[in-house]
Amino acid sequence: MTPETKLHSIQIDNEKCIGCVLCMRACPMKAIRIRNDKAVIDPLRCVDCGECYRVCPHDAVIPETTSFSYLKKFKYTVALPSPVLYMQFGWEVMPNQVLQGLKRFGFDYVYDVAWMCENVTAAYEVYMQLHPTLKPKISTVCPAVVRLITHLYPDLLNHFIPIESPRELAAKRLRFKLAIERNLKPEEIGIIHITSCAAKMVSVNHPVGLAKSHLDGVVSIKDIYGDLLDLIEDVEEDVILQKSSGVGLGWAQSGGEIRGMNLENALAVSGVSDVIRILDDAEAGRLRNIDYLELLICPDGCIGGPMVVQNRHIAKQRCETLVKMFGEKSRVSRKMIRRLFNEGFYKMEEGIEQTPLPPLDPDPIKAIQKSQKIEELLSQLCGKECGACGSPDCRTLARDIVVGEARLTDCVFIEEEKDNP
Amino acid sequence: MTDQPLFKKAFPVKGDFASAGEASVKVKNILKDIGYDSGVIRRVAVATYEAEMNVVMYGGGGEIVMAVNADHVNIIIVDQGPGIPDIKQALVEGYSTATEEMREMGFGAGMGLPNIRKNSNEFTIDSEMGKGTRLDLVFRCGG
């Protein structure tokens, strides 16, 4: 692996890949090509959204996660389940039961991340009151959205709310707290996030806005679900692990971040193509009357993540029921949030830097000329957008030819003898 | 445009709201792919979008032509609409002739033309009643 490929959690299993076009066509970043009958991901373009993973019928797209055996190296283990986990079970299963199940699974400590979500909602409010200008504010919760913006929308970087994600904040606090309470060295504690997301492993290995992640690993909901299902049967009525109200639980789906906020003009957008469309609007200056923009790359938010078990529409219904059941009144002390905010607890440790994609050519004049060449080549292609050449569409093939990564004869509709690019 | 630009392309603008904004996104994406000056991209994105919306709302369709040079970008926006009766007034911030439907879509703040002028380095407008309107815009790097 090159240093660039390590930047991603999504990898291709060449044994299983048959070189069909499905992942390449699904990729919103046009980061995949088929070369020598195998899918190849451009590490500079990939944002780990997981769209390729969803469509691959051959299980050849593998999002990297942490193995359970890795947890054995820690003296003390902590589970941080995404609120999405609560929505994966039957109607009668309550969040507290799921948390208890995780303890029985073998984690020494289990923390309700939805509670930290609820805290972060309140911290966002404080931030927005203190920084009313430069609208819309954009949250940094979704790692794939953050990469998308640092790659393609550098002008929107200063719209980010520089508040760390709930998962990282929870891990930061617990490592500190548990080390003292249980008399442990911080490195003896293994903190694992349980998630539906393909991009979280990247955010652990290569965090943005943070020098080093506070998490030690990521386990997918899919991987833990089977074991957990057997462990949630019994309920211990007097063991209360859930702290969150519906405000925190609602974070599992699109609109969750803004649900608990007292804002007139907030907008929640989910799904990769809609997110790109709204970012284009934001860049054109259309959203200046919007206070807050919640952006999640998966359809309907994290609940629609690629590594879930439950049908996302059923999970959404489940989420709504739980939100109603536990109420939409935040249980967070605003006074405590203000104190922690002023102490800098929520603040991102580092600024978010832009990561522009490589231009058509390092020489600006040549880059413009190459752009013209793309248009000329495009007029020679038939526009069937078949992908048989190994590029996702005709325009991208034209671009690949111009930058020397493909030939016109790669197009199956162009006869050999006509061409010599 | 006198000198031959390094890149030139015309983008048709349909006169319907459903596809409104598509041409200006294409314009922007080409400049991003080139790796063009980010300040120019931002100003082109805002101005071209506003101009495209004008073409959709008033012009009944038209065309955006982009010409890219090493140090500046020219954008020409042409429509065959009814023309602007009083250009001077149309350039006043807050002046709007937007219909109820346009306002419902979030337009009609009277910032269209003033915003286009503000974001471009050169701004020329020609409008003839019954014939149409043409905007000539220049965006300079570092400007």
What's the arrangement of strands in the largest beta sheet of chain B? 1-2-3-5-4
The beta-strand count of chain B equals 5
Question: Which percent bin holds the helix content of chain B?
Answer: 25-40%
Overall 3D geometry of chain B? globular
Number of helices of chain A: 16
Radius of gyration of chain B: 14 Å
- What is the typical, i.e. mean, pLDDT of chain B? 88
SSE pattern of chain A: EHEEHEHEHEHEHHEHEHHHEHEHHHH
Characteristic key phrases:
heterodimer; A: 421 residues; alpha/beta; four-stranded parallel sheet; three-stranded parallel sheet; 11 strands; globular; B: 143 residues; alpha+beta; Heat Shock Protein 90; five-stranded antiparallel sheet; 5 helices
Describe the overall structure.
The complex is a heterodimer of chains A (421) and B (143). Chain A is an alpha/beta fold and 421 residues long. Chain A is built from 16 helices and eleven strands. In chain A, the strands form four sheets. Chain A has a four-stranded parallel beta sheet with strand order 6-5-8-9, with helices on both faces. In chain A, helix 4 (95-105) packs across helix 9 (221-231). With 143 residues, chain B is of the alpha+beta class. Chain B is built from five helices and five strands. In chain B, strand 4 and strand 5 form a beta hairpin. The longest helix of chain B has 22 residues, at 38-59. At the A-B interface, helix 12 and helix 15 of A face strand 1, helix 1 and helix 2 of B.
